[in-house]
Amino acid sequence: MDVDNIECVSSSDGMEDEEIHSQMTHQFPSKPNNNNMGLTPATSVHELLECPVCTNSMYPPIHQCHNGHTLCSTCKTRVQNRCPTCRQELGDIRCLALEKVAESLELPCRYFSSGCPEIFPYYSKLKHEALCNFRPYNCPYAGSECSVTGDIPFVVTHLRDDHKVDMHTGYTFNHRYVKSNPREVENATWMLTVFHCFGKYFCLHFEAFQLGMAPVYMAFLRFMGDEADARNYSYSLEVGANGRKLTWEGTPRSIRDSHRKVRDSHDGLIIQRNMALFFSGGDRKELKLRVTGKIWKEQQNPEAGVCIPNLCS
């Protein structure tokens, strides 16, 4: 991506446009050691059910060697059928006693220290943890395969400090995209801005990608929180010039949904190249798009029983 040809201007709630050049980082921050997230109490039984190779909890079939050392079925193939503890051949011995012990266990969710109060039978705990609302969030930065996870305040700080993402306060925005050669479009051409309003954080994505034989330009909003909370908000986007405009209104998707999933579902404002060039002045030499928008919170009207927009931040 030619970052010199991309420019973002974002204003919030009547603020003056501020020239900001988007930058793409190729750094891959290391995953934080969140010792307060995702750990269960260390008990002797729980340690017995921990695979010595991957350290994950073991689920049937649980394998053992002739000396009684155990490991999970996934790691059995990784160690070439040799016990990682004593190096003896594993064979096809199941540790049925340990599987029976696991059936009788009830354990807290691994995210109990983050606030989850649930306790589950051992074999259903894993399924819950994959969808637990208290599980950490993945970094929503789309410019690299960032492996950082954490709660929302941690992820926001990470985006600001490590990815140098622009942070703005307010429920309205004004986003400008400039590219000198609109025909040179790669999947890596993207931008991210974070907005804070109503006590929550939102990610505004704007990017170009190839759709069929021609590039398209897309803007969409993601909510930094769970899907149920995301449904309490709505947003609108508008782009236009020369007496024409395109508008989009929708509900922000949670960052639980990956950036690629939202983009590939086309759940946002999509601008075809010919229309984008028309909005840019029609000379087909430079792309100049201005996307404006606002975010509002839906409030329940107790008298009418309907939702009304709340624009007070």
Structural summary, described in words:
By secondary structure, this protein is α+β, with helices and mostly antiparallel strands. The protein has two domains: 3-31 and 136-310, Apoptosis, Tumor Necrosis Factor Receptor Associated Protein 2, Chain A (Sandwich), CATH 2.60.210.10; 44-129, Zinc/RING finger domain, C3HC4 (zinc finger) (Herpes Virus-1, 2-Layer Sandwich). 18% of the residues lie in helices and 34% in strands. The protein contains eight helices and 19 strands. It has helices at residues 44-48, 73-78, 96-104, 122-129, 152-161, 227-230, 259-264, 273-279, and strands at residues 7-9, 19-21, 62-64, 70-72, 106-108, 119-121, 137-138, 149-150, 166-169, 172-179, 190-197, 200-211, 214-223, 233-241, 244-250, 253-254, 269-272, 287-301, 306-310. Strands 9, 11, 12, 13, 16 and 17 form a six-stranded mixed sheet that branches. Strands 10, 14, 15, 18 and 19 form a five-stranded antiparallel sheet that branches. It has a two-stranded antiparallel sheet with strand order 1-2. The two termini are 36 Å apart. The relative contact order is 0.13.
Kindly name the structural category. alpha+beta
CATH class of the largest domain: Mainly Beta
Roughly how many Å is the radius of gyration?
25 Å
Biggest sheet architecture: 6 strands, mixed
Taken in chain order, the helices and strands follow as EEHEEHHEEHEEHEEEEEHEEEHEHEE
CATH superfamily of the largest domain: Apoptosis, Tumor Necrosis Factor Receptor Associated Protein 2, Chain A
Shape: elongated
Number of helices: 8
Domain module count? 2
> Helicity, in percent?
10-25%
Number of strands: 19
SS strand fraction = 25-35%
Task: List unreliable stretches of 5+ residues.
Answer: 1-42
Mean pLDDT: 79
CATH architecture of the largest domain: Sandwich
Measure the end-to-end span.
Answer: 36 Å
What is the CATH T-level topology of the largest domain? Apoptosis, Tumor Necrosis Factor Receptor Associated Protein 2, Chain A
